[in-house]
Amino acid sequence: MLLKLPWMTSAYYKDLLLLRCRIAEVFSELTQSASTVVSTDSSLPMELSADVHGFGPTFRITINIVSSAKSNVFNLYISSICDPTLYEFENPLIRAVSFIAPGHKYTFTTLLTCKDPEKATKEEIRILLGQENGKIIATTAINMPMSEFPID
């Protein structure tokens, strides 16, 4: 038994190294799937970014908004678009963006549930920032990771 110990230790460290490499690859893919979009509307320069947290089937979507406008911006909404057969948002429309001051970062979160993790699909969802009159100021796309199965 003692003679096999160095071989077992090296096999363990090799597996640990491979696991760390795989974790780094997945983390890199997740950080690249979070995108930032700067507004194209010169009268309302906004930066919109979204991050995905979790392994599924329930993900937490964190939405960050930063205004570069010279004055305060009022009455905006955040909307989300996805395939309703695959995903379901807890709050598809967030109307809590009543006031945004220039240069401050505002963070909003919502939950997204994968309805069928067995399909193992990677879909794109969109986050929209718009005004009350329906004009879209900025949009960003998120490539969703594959969902893990629920632990029950």
What does this entry look like structurally?
It comes from Caenorhabditis angaria. One of its GO terms (molecular function) is smoothened binding. This is Bardet-Biedl syndrome 1 protein GAE domain-containing protein. The two termini are 39 Å apart. It is elongated, with a radius of gyration of 21 Å. The chain has 152 residues and is an alpha+beta fold. It has 1 helix and 9 strands, in the order H-E-E-E-E-E-E-E-E-E. The chain folds into 2 domains: 33 residues; 109 residues, Gamma-adaptin ear (GAE) domain (Immunoglobulin-like). The model has no long low-confidence stretch (mean pLDDT 80). The strands form 2 sheets. Strands 1-2-3-7-5 form a 5-stranded antiparallel sheet. It has a 4-stranded antiparallel sheet with strand order 6-4-8-9, with no helix packed on it. A hairpin with a 4-residue loop joins strand 8 and strand 9.
Tags for this model:
single chain; 152 residues; alpha+beta; Immunoglobulin-like; five-stranded antiparallel sheet; four-stranded antiparallel sheet; 1 helix; 9 strands; 19% helix; elongated; patched binding; GAE_BBS1; smoothened binding; BBS1; Bardet-Biedl syndrome 1 protein GAE domain-containing protein
Helical content band: 10-25%
In angstroms, what separates the terminal alpha carbons? 39 Å
Q: What's the average pLDDT?
A: 80
Count of distinct structural domains: 2
Give the strand tally: 9
CATH superfamily of the largest domain: Gamma-adaptin ear (GAE) domain
- Rounded to the nearest angstrom, the radius of gyration is 21 Å
Could you tell me the strand content as a percent range?
A: 35-45%
Backbone structural class: alpha+beta
